[in-house]
Design a protein that fits this description.
- Helices cover 58% and strands 7% of the residues.
- With 184 residues, the protein is of the alpha/beta class.
- It folds into two domains: 124 residues, 3-Layer(aba) Sandwich (Rossmann fold), CATH 3.40.50; 53 residues, no CATH class.
- Helix 7 packs across helix 8, helix 8 crosses helix 9 and helix 9 runs antiparallel to helix 10.
- The longest helix has 15 residues.
- The radius of gyration is 16 Å and the shape is globular.
- It starts with a strand and ends with a helix.
Length: 184
């Protein structure tokens, strides 16, 4: 199973975060993150949604949802790494330590291929990542989207989930809608 590290910027949007976590729960990949990645994500969430009780609960649920999701012991690698943004070195260090093949991030320019390939890692935009998963596991992703719609509990449909996901993964959403149209 492919090991992937989720960067903070892909965990920030709630629908994308939900899909990425459920991809791990479905055992399509083994997701990983660090406390530092979550600190960054929740720091940004708190700036825009200052509800500490709810955010603390979300963090706890995220860490409890997937077995062995948190990477530790990678800190010694950070100073050895060279990236355009030194603040991103901890993400690559986590990927190396976790033996991840992919870093899922929206900031591809901060993870240049020539700096990652030495370590057997490549960066992938979440839309490309999910498009690949959709092509390999269309039924599984369909079940994930339907489960999210049910969890929203306000009469949401898969289309509502896809509308929200389209902000961060437009190509994946278009493929998914096409697959739904082909079945209908």
């Amino acid at each position: 199973m492919q090991v992937v590290v989720y960067d903070a910027n892909v965990l920030y949007p709630s629908t994308l975060r939900d899909v990425l976590i459920r991809v791990g729960l479905a055992h399509l990949v083994q997701p990983k993150w660090t406390d530092q990645i979550l600190d960054e994500m929740f720091r940004n969430l708190r700036a825009n949604r200052p509800d500490p009780v709810r955010l603390d609960r979300t963090r706890r649920l995220m860490n409890d949802a997937i077995r062995d999701v948190t990477v530790t012991g990678h800190e010694h690698l950070i100073d050895q790494l060279d990236l355009p943004d030194p603040d991103d070195r901890h993400v690559l260090a986590a990927a190396i330590h976790a033996e991840a093949q992919v870093i899922v991030t929206r900031n591809l320019r901060d993870f240049p291929a020539d700096r990652l390939s030495t370590w057997g890692v490549h960066a992938q935009h979440p839309d490309d990542f999910l498009t690949g998963l959709h092509q390999d596991h269309p039924d599984a992703l369909g079940r994930i989207v339907a489960a999210i719609a049910r969890a929203w509990s306000d009469g949401a449909t898969s289309d509502d989930v896809l509308d929200s996901l389209a902000v961060d993964a437009p190509d994946t959403t278009a493929l998914f809608r096409q697959a739904l149209g082909d079945r209908g």
